[in-house]
């Protein structure tokens, strides 16, 4: 067995939490597992769709990351300002703990961390500011603050035109904007303003969830259209004019709105770009099975990675993949440290629920590594799959936090 080692996990989202918790469960206690995140709370992002329609509160869908300290992990809340992947050194400006008088007095503290094994799980950086006018005109429901502001706006909304917009063709949680459109319309119908509400979905991509293939994409499109939502694919937004409540698109088209909910552009975090870890895709390249980067003992998992598929599109950015990749990486690091067990491999399988409103959801699952195209099956919406998502949400925090 190797002498005492340190495993450093960057990011407290799905991948980071699962990796850190899995490592702590399996590693002998003399080894350190450290997790760093700029936020003090872990957010269960799939429930943001329910938060925006008033079915959840922020407290119901988040938990303090400090809970991991009870399990023997070291938890650091701070901003990661520098990563040297060659030496696995990381600089963090640690946030003061407002509940600790000593920490408040000391203020922010810079810490340099060194790792024997480094897992990068920093997710995708959301960049709505790259589209002129977007931030001030609409609600970014991919964030806690944006989902809350959309919920408040909905409470004052008494009919009109709701636009759901994807700002670029690629983004995490590929089903989410389609779910959002259906859930927003369902919300308005339950409030009795459905007849005076029109929901339009403008997307930069040519069809829903294109990586799943034409058949599944067409099924998702039918789900949306059958709800009475007007779908406008291949509309690349160039600017939003909040005072005029108008969206401008690259082809010269425009669209008006009374309420705008959007998915912003995504990019790798600045600290990852500065570290020289991305390739021409703009994301961190990894071995598709081991999640190893080109740097020794450095792994990347989840949304920060770019994994090309045979069909020409990348593996979708989704929590289900981050969770499974995290388990593979944790297992293999434990194997390296302890010398026990067989190597694990990420096989590209995944699934997701697609909420349609009315207490129903669809469910898609399959092999995204299948060649020449992913082999995905989509089950039609039913109460069974909606209950499945409820159960998944209910079990998340007891399992991991």
Structure notes:
The structure is a single chain. The protein is α/β, with parallel strands linked by helices and 401 residues long. The protein folds into two domains: 6-124 and 268-338, FAD/NAD(P)-binding domain (3-Layer(bba) Sandwich); 128-265, FAD/NAD(P)-binding domain. 28% of the residues lie in helices and 29% in strands. It contains ten helices and 24 strands. It has helices at residues 14-26, 48-52, 101-106, 134-137, 144-156, 176-190, 214-226, 270-274, 319-338, 383-400; strands at 6-10, 32-37, 41-43, 62-64, 74-84, 89-94, 109-114, 117-120, 125-126, 139-140, 160-166, 197-202, 230-232, 237-241, 246-249, 254-256, 259-263, 266-267, 284-285, 298-300, 305-306, 349-357, 360-367, 375-382. The strands form seven sheets. A seven-stranded mixed sheet has the order 7-6-5-2-1-8-20. α1 (14-26) packs parallel to α9 (319-338). The longest helix is centred in the C-terminal third of the chain and has 20 residues, at 319-338. The radius of gyration is 21 Å and the shape is globular. The mean pLDDT is 96.
Which terms would index this structure?
single chain, 401 residues, alpha/beta, FAD/NAD(P)-binding domain, seven-stranded mixed sheet, five-stranded parallel sheet, 10 helices, 24 strands
What is the strand and helix layout of this fold?
Layout: E1 6-10, H1 14-26, E2 32-37, E3 41-43, H2 48-52, E4 62-64, E5 74-84, E6 89-94, H3 101-106, E7 109-114, E8 117-120, E9 125-126, H4 134-137, E10 139-140, H5 144-156, E11 160-166, H6 176-190, E12 197-202, H7 214-226, E13 230-232, E14 237-241, E15 246-249, E16 254-256, E17 259-263, E18 266-267, H8 270-274, E19 284-285, E20 298-300, E21 305-306, H9 319-338, E22 349-357, E23 360-367, E24 375-382, H10 383-400
Parallel strand pairs: 1-2, 1-8, 2-5, 8-20, 10-17, 11-12, 11-17, 12-13, 19-21
Antiparallel strand pairs: 3-4, 5-6, 6-7, 9-18, 14-15, 15-16, 22-23, 23-24
Helix pairs in contact: 1-9
